[in-house]
Amino acid sequence: MAKSKGMMGRRTIDPGWMAKREKLGARLRTFRERAGLRTESVGHHLNMSSLRVLRIEEGVSGIPAEYLLDMARLYGVSVSELLGDRARRTTPALHSTDAT
């Protein structure tokens, strides 16, 4: 959750949350540029303004989850690649050292 209740009901922003948003935005821009697309074209395909695409890439605006699959398809990559998901890495197999 990006925001939490602080003292006296005020909301505070988790500083790591903004950094994650900026990192995702930078990844989205990189994939868009690799695909040879302009923000106007992406906005048209996703039915949003090019300014909103730019704000997402700058980390100013968040991206609704339902757009991630469409962006991945548009950029020719997987959603995991967009998100920088490293969970797909396999762990080394454990080998038994018992001598029998």
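the 2nd protein, sequnce then structure:
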Amino acid sequence: MGGKQARQIMPSRLKVGAMVYDVVAANGLPDMGLCDEENATIAIRAGLPDDVERITVLHEAVHAMLYALGYRKHNERIVDGLAYQMVAVLRDNPDFARYLVAGD
């Protein structure tokens, strides 16, 4: 049966390497999102449309991954491109997404 799926709730925590980030919706951000490695927080601008919110969370997760790898200066075009392409690959290939997260 067709119908609109329930809105997925943004995760409140995200583990990246040894760090566990709190993920919060925030008002008054100058950008759509912010990854604060020092305080282990990912802030996402409150009220974004669902798809924009998802890509923004992934964008900030890419920043967190780069921090975990020891990179402190990030090229925003590369981070943004990776976030958009990762979402597209996972959405366009659901079997691949399930394969990636499957346990042994």
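The helical segments are 50-68, 76-92, 94-101. Residues 2 and 8 are 17 Å apart (CA to CA).
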